[in-house]
Amino acid sequence: MSHTEAVARLGYALSDETRTRILLALREAPAYPSDLADALGVSRQVMSNQLACLRGCGLVATEREGRHTWYRLADPHLAPALSELLRVVLFVDPTCCGPEGCTCT
Question: What is the CATH number of the domain that holds 34?
């Protein structure tokens, strides 16, 4: 895969608000899909579909724990990269995120 294809794949993953919210949540800690669905206010079916997409993009990985599976970012470099991307967003639009969280969509 070329650098261009890899960046395009990341861009595709980030082009959906739910997928972006999942990545930002997993930046903090691994999670079970049901917990992510509850935290983000989406159905478990939507969560399953979005996690499958992120897994296909190579951005998340799974870990089995008994009968349950939890998700984490696939590479440790992703968390700081997402944090840096948030700093870029704030540079481009300083009014985007306030104390109550991000308001840009």
Answer: 1.10.10.10
16-41 burial, b at 16+ Cβ within 10 Å, e below that, comes to eebbbbbbbbbbeebbebeebbeebe
> Rounded to whole angstroms, how far apart are CA atoms 35 and 85?
25
Rounded to two decimals, what is the model's pTM? 0.82
Nearest alpha-carbon partner for 13 in 47, 46, 48, 58: 58
SS3 99: coil
Look at 43 and 103; give whichever has higher pLDDT: 43
Q: What's the pLDDT tens digit per position in 47-69?
A: 999 999 999 999 999 999 999 99
Amino acid (one-letter) located at 30: P
Measured distance CA(22)–CA(51) in Å, rounded = 8
Say if 98 falls within a structural domain: no
Pull the structure tokens for residue 70. 């939890």
